[in-house]
Q: What sequence folds into this?
């Protein structure tokens, strides 16, 4: 005799379904904060952790492709800790394309805290003789972020073009269209302008006070990154409907930094000439 199975019997609920998902992001960030604190305070914990797992890949997994500013800052804190604990970390991070990932990802999450953490990786500011570059690998990320911000700042005020205009040519930054358009949408609240101005202030100061920072521009690739940023800003701003006080301050800092590069013997001759020409066009505009 067959037994009839009731059709209204519910399946056992998974334990996971009883978790509180409403605050999952907040809890994950709290957990990350505790993890960073433990790694910072205990050399033994860091040694055990790095021996058990590939820290470079763990950091990239934590970062993801669209981190919040909080997560980006905490991952940079972890990188800073690793520099202090391991002399080989920088090379290992390079082998997993970590620096390239930072260059691609951090502009999405840049704020004042990320700014401070990134420059903290770039420099040793504890020296009595002034700051010195300790990790040049982070500079492309900083310059890349500045470039995208400058394009967005100038783009949003370009005559006859708004931030959503798909006909805009972004030149060498075409692959960054979505990020730049996202930044354009945030320019009006002042954050992008403020962050761009803060980066410019920092590099202008370092160019005048830190010999090891000036040496980084012996690299033609590094100098060319700044030239692209400057050129894009000059081209777009010349078509702007309006120029705010933020634009004026950014322009002054760009011109100041550009002038120091054009006079610096560490910079290659053709690039010095290119920067000088941009300065001339900027003044004429």
A:
């Amino acid at each position: 005799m067959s037994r009839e199975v009731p059709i209204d019997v519910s399946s056992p609920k998974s334990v996971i379904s009883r978790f509180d998902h409403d605050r999952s992001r907040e809890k994950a960030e709290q957990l990350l904060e505790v993890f960073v604190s433990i790694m910072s305070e205990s050399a033994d914990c860091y040694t055990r952790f790095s021996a058990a797992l590939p820290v470079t890949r763990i950091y990239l997994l934590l970062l993801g492709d669209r981190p919040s500013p909080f997560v980006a800052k905490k991952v940079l804190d972890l990188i800073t800790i690793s520099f202090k604990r391991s002399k080989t970390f920088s090379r290992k991070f390079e082998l997993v394309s970590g620096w390239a990932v930072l260059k691609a990802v951090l502009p999405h999450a840049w704020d004042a805290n990320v700014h401070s953490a990134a420059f903290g990786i770039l420099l040793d500011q504890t020296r009595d003789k002034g700051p010195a570059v300790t990790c040049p690998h982070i500079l492309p990320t900083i310059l890349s972020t500045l470039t995208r911000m400058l394009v967005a700042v100038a783009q949003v005020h370009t005559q006859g073009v708004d931030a959503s205009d798909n006909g805009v040519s972004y030149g060498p930054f075409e692959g960054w269209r979505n990020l730049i358009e996202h930044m354009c949408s945030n320019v009006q609240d002042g954050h992008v302008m403020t962050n761009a101005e803060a980066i410019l202030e920092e590099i202008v100061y370092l160019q005048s006070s830190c010999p090891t920072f000036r040496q980084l521009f012996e690299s033609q690739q590094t100098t060319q990154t700044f030239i692209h940023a400057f050129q894009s800003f000059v081209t777009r701003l010349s078509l702007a409907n309006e120029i705010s006080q933020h634009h004026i301050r950014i322009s002054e800092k760009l011109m100041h930094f550009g002038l120091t590069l054009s006079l610096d013997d560490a910079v290659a001759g053709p690039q010095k000439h290119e920067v000088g020409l941009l300065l001339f066009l900027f003044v004429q505009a």
User: Anything to note?
Assistant: Residues 25-96 form one domain. Residues 159-176 have pLDDT under 50 and may be disordered.
